[in-house]
Amino acid sequence: MKRILGLVLTASLGVVLTACGMSSAPNPPSAMAAGEFHTLALTSAGSVWAWGRNNDGQLGDGTNTSSNVPVQVNSLSSVTTIAGGVLFSLALKSDGTVWAWGYNSDGELGDGTNTSSNVPVQVSNLTNVTAIAAANGDPFALALKSDGTVWAWGYNADGELGNGTNTSSNVPVQVSTVTNVTAISAGGSHSLALESDGSVWAWGYNTEGQLGDGTNTSTNTPVQISGLTGITAIAAGLIHSLALKSDGTVSAWGDNTSGQLGDGNTTSTNTPVQVSGLTAVTAIAAGDTHSLALKSDSSVWAWGYNSDGELGNGSTSDSSIPVQVSSLIGVTTIAAGGDTSLALKGDGSLWAWGGNADGELGDGTTTNRSSPEQVTGLH
Q1: pLDDT above 90 coverage of the chain, percent
Q2: How buried is residue 321: exposed, middle or buried, by Cβ count under 10 Å (0-12/13-18/19+)?
Q3: Is the pTM value of this prediction over 0.90?
Q4: Into how many domains does the chain fold?
Q5: CATH no. for residue 329?
């Protein structure tokens, strides 16, 4: 996040967005993912579509032309999972291989080079993968294999790769000590892993307590998060973290300057606190400085930073407690990017709100939205 904050301020200047020629997606979306400045959708047919900033080829369509409507990622089929990073993208195929495209100066594409690519390239020496995660702060990525081990590649100055070093790697390296992992998440400069016993482990940068171990000391090997048991899902934001418990409540820790921990104040904490007033939650997501939750009644709730409308409640005022996203029912899946939020409804329609300077909402404009707008051409 130390490096990327400068990048955010400079890279956004002079971006030209064009509504590229696009044919309608052959099937409605079945999943979505948000990067820092771009968005991805996966269709039920296994193809991937992308929109938003494309200066470094993160849309994967063979160009470096940004788009405020979806364009198809080149030569990619049989995809089961997608992930969006700061200036790069990932896709997991049904054969257990991982593919990447976009910026690659720190090896975040994992193909053994530091050469950027505007079309997908295969991540080296990685098979039997079941889950992927891409960071929205420093450029690194994670993969979970079927044997419960975690692998990481890319930027590592703060120990984001969790292998006991601070040396970046352009090929996957194994994260130390964690085993029987069932879920992973990549934050700004930190990583999370959920083990099968419901415990959560974290590593990387920790100045705001985002590792949740009761300290503010960064580490390049995993440490267990204090006092968390019975966890079923995890989500890492830029400098904060979330965990969903089996009882449907949500815990949060780390930076809280915009209320992204949702506990009614703006005091950061290096141990978990409970998000206020949230029960019956079934899924969570974390953006840079805002958080989302999906409840069992299919409603979506949000809290934290809101200057770009990322809370979706029709305002641009921050909130340190959850507020309901406006006019959105029937939601089955949620995702959050840098300053954007996404929801997939049961009818296959995809909705987005928040920051849109690079066209990452996919509605054909570059206008921020403080309430949900449907993504164009995906249903």
Answers
A1: 91
A2: middle
A3: yes
A4: 1
A5: 2.130.10.30
